[in-house]
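Same chain as my last thread, 432 residues:
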Amino acid sequence: MAEINPDIDMTFNSEALPSFFRDVEIIGPADLELPKYRLAHARLNFGASPKTAEISAKSSPFLLMTKSVREIYKNNDFATIKNIEKNANDDLRSVYTNISNNGDKAWTKVKKNGKEFYMSWSNNGSIWAYTENMTVLNNATLNAQVQIGTYSKSNSILGIHTYTLSIPAVIAESAIAYIVARAVSGIIAEGLGFAIATFSLLLAQAASKVGLTGFSFAIRSSVVSAISSNLVFAIVFIGLQYLWNWLNRKYTIRLQIFNWDDKNSWKVNGQYLSNAKICGDNQELNFELPKMLKPGEAVTPPGFDPVEVLDTVCYYAIVVWENDNTFLQGCDMAIQVQKNDTEGFMWAFSCPRFTNNKQAANNGLEDPKAYLAQANWNSEPLGFRIRSTSRNNPVIFALDALSGAPDNLYNINIHINKEQNNNVAANYLLLK
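reply #2:
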């Protein structure tokens, strides 16, 4: 675990919800709710035959943020971004630590407008599991969409990722929320070294706790990459400080992709790596970033009422690589980003051992291996832009340091369809 900063709020008051949740009833700790679930499910008599539930990712995660935070990210003001991440780290570290240390006792069942869900919180941050909707099919299969939401009060940033569960049984919304909450909690505790198989196992263990014995959870190979991306988001949110003790402090490359395009979805479809690997056991890169939403179209739990208005909904992806072999070696990677099957752009990054970092990007789709081999490295790697596809979508690329970054952690932001803004004069304003 990360060292605990004594200046960080470590208070957990199960008698009072934080100020950003209004008029929500506290029902009780999760560990006291479990016997009720087991009793209810025993009465349903599911039978002795084993049952398999499927889990997939509804979509990539998305961020809700204020207008001021949106502009900080869009203008790639890395100095301020790092302060935002530090604040979020301080807001959420105590919550994550509580979950890692206390398991079920860290989660509390709450209720508003007839909706029951689970939360864990401090005064300045919160994580919740909330069943957005359920559909019961004719064969008694339940399709449920469960969101995990994480909120940092200091800068009013909310991150949400949602999973779809297909369960061959009809059970309560709150029980489904608990199952996903406990599984994601286990991944948070494990850190970026998690295995996808562990997520399936944790789901089954949580299902057993609520009395769904004999359940296993299957993840189809076609959705592994999207689920892995969501789990990385669950661990990292917008900062890596909480995880520094889990990373081995080799070269760590964090790529963040923001889709500001309100007309088109974009897909990251394939990569080529040289002496690099994705943190975690999934080495595939294949997920979709849906088009940007209007704020009112985002689903949040009943009672969530942040201090500041969250006016932007942006689908977002985060990929964390590290170098594989460390002796006198850096790492390189290239990815393909598609708007459709025939249009998109390429991006490559090189983190050499003894020279400055390099970036390249070009309109058009190519094989990532071939693109990396012949990359035309941009002369301004800290920041540049291209236009992509027949719609001439602007794409902005920003890097926080050429070399010598603290802890060898380098951050790259890619903004798809970022509109122009000439009002911010900063070293990383990239509108050339």
